[in-house]
Design brief:
By secondary structure, this protein is mainly alpha-helical. It has one domain. It has 19 helices and no strands. The longest helix is centred in the first third of the chain and has 39 residues. It is globular. The two termini are 39 Å apart. The mean pLDDT is 81.
Length: 409
Amino acid sequence: MLNRLWFGFFLTAAVAALSRWLIGGDESVFAAVVGSLFDMADLSVKVMLLLFGTLTLWLGFLRIAEQAGLVDRLARALGPLFARLMPGVPRGHPAIGLITLNFAANALQLDNAATPIGLRAMRELQTLNPSEDTASNAQILFLVLNASSLTLLPVNVFMYRAQAGAHDPTLVFLPILLAHFAANLTGLLSVAYMQRLKLWDPVVLAWLGGGALLLGGFIALLASLSAVALASLSALLGNLLLFGVIIAFLCAGAYKKVPLFESFVDGAKQGFEVAKDLLPYLIAMLCAVGVLRASGALDFALDGIRWLVLHAGLDDRFVDALPTALVKPFSGSAARAMLIETMHHSGVDSFPALLAATIQGSTETTFYVVAVYFGAVGIRRVRHTVGCALLADLAGVLASIAVCYWFFG
C-alpha cells in the first residue's frame, strides 16, 4: 500500500507538472518541483533534530514512570476495554498504558509529550507483531485513533486567529470539537469494520458512553466560559498538566525508590535509538509530498471541486477554505500557511476563514504520522491504515463544513 501510494504521489506530480507546462506554458514548474525535493530533504533533517531532543527527554521520564509501576497500573485498569478493541494485546501489557497516555496528551495538545509516548507505544505493540514489516491490527487501530484523536483545547488555532486580529479568537471552539469528534468516531468505526471488532459489546459501550458523558460535560463547562477565560485556561492548562505529569512521574519514582537519574538516562538512550531510524522514512514521505504540492496537483483538484459545486448550483463559499483541507493530510506547515492566507485574503471572521480554522483544528497530518510512527518500527506494509485515516480526515472536513454552515451560515 505504502509503495503504491508513494509512487502515486510522484506520478500524479509528473502529470500535473507536464500539464502546467504543455497547456499553461509554465516552464518554471519543473524548477519548483526539483527545488521542493531538496527543501523537503532539508526540512526532514530539521524535524529530526527536534525529534531527537523531545524523544530523549520524554522517554527518559517515561522510563521512570514505568519503573514506578504507573504504566502497569493504567494498563490493568483499561485491560477490559482494550481486550475487546485490541484482542491481540494481552491484558496488562505496557502498550495499553502508553496508548492511554498518548491519547490524553493528544487531547490536551501536549504535542511534545504525545509523539514520544506514542512512538514508545508503537514499539511495544511491535513486540507482539508476528511480522517485521506488516502492520498488525492493534497498530492500525492505534495509529488511526492517534491521527484523528480529539483535541479538547485547540490552542494553536486560537493563536492564529488572535494574531490575525479576530475579535473573538475562540469563536471556532465548539465547531472544532464537533468536527473532531466526527473524525474520531469515523476512524474508530472504519477500523472496527475492517477488523470486525464488536463495538456493541457491553464493556465497550459502557466505556465509550461514559467517556462521551465526561467529554460532553467538559465541553459544556468550557462553552460556558468567556473568550478571555477560555484563552487563559487554554494557555494555563497545557503547561500546568505537562509539568504536573513530570513531577508526578518523579514523585512516584522516588516513592518506589527508583534510581531517578539512572532510569532517565536509560530511557533517553532508547529515545536516541528510536529517533535515528526515522530519517529515511521522513525524507521519503516529505519529499513525495513536496513534489505533489509544487507540481500544482492540489490546485487542479481545487479548481475541479469549484467547477463541480458551481455546476450543481450549490453555495461555493466553502471552496475557498478547501486549500487547508487538501494540504493538511500532507503537511501541517502548509495547512497553517493556507489558513493564514485565507484569513488575510477573506477576512479573519469571514465564512471561509472560520471554516479553514475549523478544518485546521479537526484534521491531522496523516501521511506525516504514518511515516513517523510506522517508520519507528520498520513497518512498510500498512494495510488499511491510510484508507481509514483518510476517511477520518474526510469526515472531519465534511463535518466542519456542515457545522460551520450551522453556526456561521
